[in-house]
Amino acid sequence: MHPSANQPELTQADIDVEIAERSAAETDAAAGGALPSHPRRDYRPYRSTTLRHPTHELVRADPEEIELVSPAFGHTDVAPEEADMTIQHAGEPLGERIIVTGRILDGDGRPVRNQLVEIWQANASGRYVHKRDQHPAPLDPNFTGVGRIVTGDDGSYRLTTIKPGPYPWKNHRNAWRPAHIHFSFFGTAFTQRLITQMYFPGDPLFGLDPIYQSIVDPAARERLVAGYDHDVSVPEWATGYRWDVVLTGPSSTWMEPEDADHA
Length: 263
Fold this sequence. Notes:
Layout: H1 12-30, H2 49-52, H3 63-69, E1 97-105, E2 116-121, E3 146-150, E4 156-162, E5 167-168, E6 176-177, E7 180-185, E8 194-199, H4 210-213, H5 218-222, E9 227-228, E10 239-242, E11 245-246
Parallel strand pairs: 1-10, 1-11
Antiparallel strand pairs: 1-4, 2-3, 2-7, 5-6, 7-8, 9-10
């Protein structure tokens, strides 16, 4: 989102002040209790939320009626090779090859079986294959940046891809998103879709990013960050990361509101 012509252009320093003020306000509101693990829908440092967040009660719909016209999938619809985003084209993509694995669990720690997981991401240069992405970074003809997985009986998934690069997103002057991978989970029906983002450890952009910082509980933020796992790494081939997702309960992984623009 571009600033109005009648307003001064916001800088990262301006956003840092707003993030600090909002974090202090949330801490004061908690008054020694638990901090909220999910952000407010109208988080001012994340500029588009002030324009896009719901202001009225959601419209109720019959889920059974929706399922009659929604897409369906089965085991034959999701091919095993869709879990490897490095083999979808004639050549190999550029960048650092990585493996991401983990388990999808419910709030009681039980595995979520046969879960459809969709993944999308930028390439190693921080560029999406999308007409709205005008970031002047190169596209990779051998990397589309999308994949799908169905979890196993133990709730496990395994993804092979390229580590994405950071990219500018115009929330304010010189705004950059930390490197991340989008994950979408469908539960047992398409009306149960949840979306979140996985980050990489030690990213220097964490403290500057309004989306990441909109989660004021440090423990909840940490649940979005994958851990490097040397046992997952494959010698001479790929580095490995482990990231578990909890869909419900007090330790659930943060999920984006349905009206988010998925930056």
